[in-house]
Write a structure and sequence with these properties.
heterodimer; A: mainly alpha; B: alpha+beta; 3-stranded mixed beta sheet; ELC1 (chain B); nucleus (chain B); Elongin-C (chain B); SKP1-like (chain B); SKP1/BTB/POZ_sf (chain B)
Chain lengths: 189, 98
Amino acid sequence: MSNQKKRIFQIEAFKNRVVVDPSYSEKTWNILDHAIHQNQICNQNASGLSFEELYRNAYNMVFHKFGEKLYSGLFTTMTACLQETSISLEAAQVHRERTGEAIDRGLMRNIVKMLMDLGFSVYLEEFEKPFLEVSAEFYKGESQKIMECCDCGDYLKRAEIRINEERDDCYPHDKISPQGELRLGKYAS
Amino acid sequence: MKKEDTVKLISSEGMEFVIDKEAAMVSQTIRNMLTSPGGFAEAEHGVVTFPEINAVILEKICQYFYWSLQYSRGKETEFHIEPELTLELMMAANYLHT
């Protein structure tokens, strides 16, 4: 590297850092991906993981100009993680609310907002579809039960109450898409 | 030195440096390793390995930590760096957020 003390100090180019292996970025990314998914960062448990190793791999990726790959890979992985957890949470929450239990509205709102932030299309596909399917199932079941025991007037009243409940439910969240609302109304009737 | 107040830093050759936690925390990276939630192995055992930093550089870095603490307490001395170490030292410092 540097020359003798008598000569002018020079820094030579850092030769031993050239990345010869073309699949280096792929390998490095796989290490990180593995750590995030299988080694339970998803489940909020990082015990046994080495921070330094993960940090070093991420650092090397950026250092060798693979930062973009790192970012997009992370994005997809975290999205998948979040979807899994939030969808199951949402379904559970909504079901409980419909059966009359009080739920943590703040939590609901945050989850919905999170999904929205991930991208509106993400929200539409991943959340609304299963949400509406579940709603459809629920209403079919409910309407049959009601038809068995009440008369027509009663049924219409209950249906109206349900529609209003759902609409109130959605307004605080403020974000349900217009199509979503329409379809919800259709299922309720 | 009590065991709880120290951390062990291990270089690429396997040389171990035991220093005060306070000194190690001069490095943002090390500070994060030891304090971030989630139970990483480093925080649990108080040991951090650096497979890409060699012993000479790591030693200089440990010296820097202590110098930094002294400097912040008012003792304004110079920190001498041998020229041939500068490049690797700079890269390690960047890595360690120091």
